[in-house]
């Protein structure tokens, strides 16, 4: 009996263990899977494998018998992406040869007159007409492309460059013949998106390179569109529309879909674009700030840079909040947004005779010449958010036949107009709130409408709330050029300081990003709303998404003129020739405050292409310089390998690394603080090296600074640099000495080297933390 009892107990124990094990595996199977990007040390592949893909697959199968590889990466990254549970990802990260396992990140889009404003209409003679200009390829990672647009006309282009390895991928609405000698490549990347969001709804968007959104066509034609005469949006901004580099080729990489842009797709597209033969990559998207070894775009951009490819990214549309930047790695060119000298006025005339200037791109039937009643949306709704004109919130009986004053926020600006129209309203005044201040962004509204600033909105609201029978009219002023002051920094443009590495000043520079005319999709109207039946060749939109391709195209222009320049040299030329003041000497303004902007807003300043063609001197950088920078950040060997693909790389214990030693074209100087205003002086030293890309000459340094509540003493040694030949390098040291100031104190300045012909300028930002 005892023996039987023991056997029974043992059986029960085994059954319990089996059930526990089974329950564990069931729980693991039910654990939610997400996409992870797995970075591998390529050189550590075991000898038992002959192909890296087989090794990656075996590594994946060792932790999961059901996960499948989405993408293999082999150019700007080494590794793969797959859907894993957190437990599987953790197990995978412990395997030999695995550098890091990063969870997928969802990125968002940072959503004519410009060539004249930038001086490109006068600079054609500065750009060599050799074939090198048309050998440059700009890869645009975005929502795809509408290839039938005239901006992709290939008249006058020779054969596709011999080294081009790209493809024109087909879909049910996109043929290989959609590409030509201008648009030489088009690919789409959806595996990561579909793994996270489910299959693409092909009734709403195209599973092909075709652009159903409009954003990608706009950015690609801004960067390198061919010249198109008589271009306009519904009669606004009429003229010749052209990209920044009309002779460059375009390759479109569709990575953004209705539900966003996913990092596994973005990295795959960067991998393909560099391997295809692109010289410039333009990414008008972002996902906030994170350490470089955890940032897929930063990782891809590093390895693109090492292969000679410049990567230009938008700074983000989260301004004017401090430290709101995206894409801050020092090997990325980070672009903020400014305005043009062009506007589209729409005047709001009140019954009391007051007149307020707003903006609009409305082109339909105007309002009656006699004033109409005007009502505040908040008083014509049963909703607590009725002032925002959200769908279904307006009472038709209270708005019918009237102009409705709506507050900006939450829902798209153009959708508010549609809500007013559907409720029977005759027109709309869209008022900015404190979040947007006086920044005016024009829209192609579906009904007569004008967007006004916060002050005008407050005044109009006060009028209609104080009058028993308030009236108004909206008068449209068409297109106005020569607006002053311009440029000003856009309020939405994301700002520094750089929260990842405060000693690297970001953004790098600003470019036109407000009310930009460029090519558009044929799938939706200029509002992007499904109810908008209008179809246009060009549209006008705003964002750092628009400023980024300006710089991407200008980088292609410089690459065509100077094929031997590195990505760092090209960025340096654009930064050191940028301007931070108007012709009269006053500093660039910030529309968010109405006051002078700072380098935390505009970086080096506003891009100036004619001067960038001949910068005189440049600050050059190599991949090894950036690795020294990572050592200065105390990155581990694994973290460096994740970014730079240098397996087993170890920083030299005998070498002194300093972030201040990175040969960057700007200066961000961080001082320590003590409590109160006392304390002794602190000295911070930066070293830099300039390379002569012009004629022999002697350059002298001048420095100007401004600090509230204190003084920073700046010494440049040597203060004079003599260059006797092209390619020659000369180094200097800058010592910044300052007293301890309260935490949060700021100061700014500018260091300039000049030979009498060229001015090589660097912005300076001081902070006390």
Notes on the structure:
It comes from Elaeis guineensis var. tenera (Oil palm). Helix 7 (215-224) runs parallel beside helix 13 (544-561). The strands form ten sheets. The chain has a seven-stranded parallel beta sheet with strand order 7-10-6-13-15-16-27, sandwiched between helices. Strands 19-18-24-20-21-22-23 form a seven-stranded mixed beta sheet, sandwiched between helices. The N and C termini lie far apart (79 Å). Helix content is 23%, strand content 27%. The protein is built from 18 helices and 40 strands. The chain is of the alpha/beta class and 769 residues long. A hairpin with a 2-residue loop joins strand 8 (228-233) and strand 9. The protein folds into four domains: 34-103, Alpha-Beta Plaits, CATH 3.30.70; 115-341 and 486-613, Peptidase S8/S53 domain (Rossmann fold); 345-474, 3-Layer(bba) Sandwich (Glucose Oxidase, domain 1), CATH 3.50.30.30; 663-768, Immunoglobulin-like (Sandwich). The chain is globular.
- Provide the spatial order of strands within the biggest beta sheet: 7-10-6-13-15-16-27
Class computed from helices, strands and strand pairing: alpha/beta
Question: What is the residue-averaged pLDDT?
Answer: 91
Strand content: 25-35%
Low-confidence stretches: 1-29
Approximately how much helix is present in the residues? 10-25%
First-last Cα distance: 79 Å
Domain Inhibitor I9: 35-110
Domain Subtilisin-like protease fibronectin type-III: 662-765
Organism: Elaeis guineensis var. tenera (Oil palm)
Signal peptide: 1-29
């Amino acid at each position: 009996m005892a023996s039987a009892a023991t056997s029974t107990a043992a059986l029960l124990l085994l059954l319990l263990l089996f059930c526990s094990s089974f329950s564990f595996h069931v729980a693991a199977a039910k654990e939610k899977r997400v996409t992870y990007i797995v970075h591998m040390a390529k050189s550590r592949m075991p000898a038992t494998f002959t192909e890296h893909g087989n090794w990656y697959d075996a590594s994946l199968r060792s932790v999961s018998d059901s996960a499948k590889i989405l993408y293999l990466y082999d150019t700007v990254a080494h590794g793969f992406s797959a859907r894993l549970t957190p437990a599987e990802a953790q197990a995978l990260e412990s395997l030999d040869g695995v550098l890091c396992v990063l969870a997928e990140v969802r990125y968002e889009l940072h959503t004519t007159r410009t060539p004249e404003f930038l001086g490109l209409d006068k600079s054609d003679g500065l750009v060599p007409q050799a074939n090198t200009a048309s050998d440059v390829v700009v890869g645009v990672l975005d929502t795809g492309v509408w290839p039938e647009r005239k901006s992709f006309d290939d008249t006058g282009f020779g054969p596709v460059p011999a080294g081009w390895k790209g493809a024109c991928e087909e879909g049910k609405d996109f043929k290989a013949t959609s590409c030509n000698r201008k648009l030489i490549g088009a690919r789409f990347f959806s595996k990561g998106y579909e793994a996270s969001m489910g299959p693409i709804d092909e009734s709403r968007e195209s599973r092909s390179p075709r652009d159903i959104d409009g954003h990608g066509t706009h950015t690609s034609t801004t960067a390198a569109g061919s010249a198109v005469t008589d271009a306009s949006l519904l009669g606004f901004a009429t003229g010749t529309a052209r990209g920044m580099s009309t002779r460059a080729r375009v390759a479109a990489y569709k990575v953004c879909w209705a539900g966003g842009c996913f990092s596994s797709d973005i990295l795959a597209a960067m991998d393909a674009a560099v391997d295809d033969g692109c010289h410039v990559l333009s990414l008008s998207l972002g996902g906030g700030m994170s350490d470089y070894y955890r940032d897929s775009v930063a990782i891809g951009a590093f390895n693109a840079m090492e292969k000679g490819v410049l990567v230009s990214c938008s700074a983000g549309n989260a301004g004017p909040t401090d430290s709101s930047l995206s894409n801050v790695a020092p090997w990325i060119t980070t672009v903020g947004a400014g305005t043009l000298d062009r506007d589209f006025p729409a005047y709001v005339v009140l019954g009391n005779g007051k007149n307020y200037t707003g903006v609009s791109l409305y082109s339909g039937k105007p309002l009656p010449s006699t004033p109409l009643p005007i009502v505040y949306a908040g008083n014509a709704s049963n909703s607590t958010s009725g002032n925002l004109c959200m769908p279904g919130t307006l009472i038709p009986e209270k708005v019918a036949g009237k102009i409705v004053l709506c507050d900006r926020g939450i829902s798209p600006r153009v959708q508010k107009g549609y809500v007013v129209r559907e409720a029977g309203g005759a027109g709309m005044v869209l008022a900015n709130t404190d979040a947007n201040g006086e920044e005016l962004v024009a829209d192609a509204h579906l009904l007569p409408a004008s967007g006004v600033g916060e002050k005008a909105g407050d005044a109009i609201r006060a009028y209609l709330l104080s009058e028993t029978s308030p009236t108004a009219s909206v008068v449209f002023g068409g297109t106005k050029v020569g607006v002053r002051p311009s440029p000003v920094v856009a309020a939405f443009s994301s700002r520094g300081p750089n929260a990842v590495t405060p000693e690297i000043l970001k953004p790098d520079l600003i470019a036109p990003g407000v009310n930009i005319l460029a090519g558009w999709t044929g799938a939706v109207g200029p509002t992007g709303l499904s109810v908008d039946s209008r179809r246009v060749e060009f549209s006008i939109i705003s964002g750092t998404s628009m400023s980024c391709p300006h710089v991407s195209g200008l980088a292609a222009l410089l690459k065509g003129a100077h094929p031997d320049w590195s990505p760092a040299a090209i960025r340096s030329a654009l930064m050191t020739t940028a301007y931070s003041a108007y012709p009269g000497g006053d500093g660039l303004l910030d529309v968010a405050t109405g006051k002078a902007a700072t380098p935390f807003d505009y970086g080096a300043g506003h891009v100036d292409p004619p001067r960038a063609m001949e910068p005189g001197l440049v600050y050059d950088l190599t991949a090894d310089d950036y690795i020294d920078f990572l050592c200065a950040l105390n990155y581990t060997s694994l973290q460096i390998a994740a970014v730079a693909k240098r397996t087993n790389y170890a920083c030299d214990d005998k070498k002194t690394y300093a972030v201040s030693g990175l040969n960057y074209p700007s200066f961000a100087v961080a001082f320590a603080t003590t409590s109160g205003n006392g304390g002794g002086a602190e000295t911070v030293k930066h070293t830099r090296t300039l390379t002569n890309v012009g004629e022999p000459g002697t350059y002298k340094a001048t420095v100007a600074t401004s600090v509230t509540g204190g003084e920073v003493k700046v010494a440049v040694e040597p203060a004079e640099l003599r260059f006797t030949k092209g390619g020659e390098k000369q180094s200097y040291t800058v010592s910044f000495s300052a007293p301890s100031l309260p935490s949060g104190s700021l100061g700014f300045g500018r260091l300039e080297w000049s030979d009498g012909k060229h001015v090589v300028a660097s912005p300076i930002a001081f902070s006390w933390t």
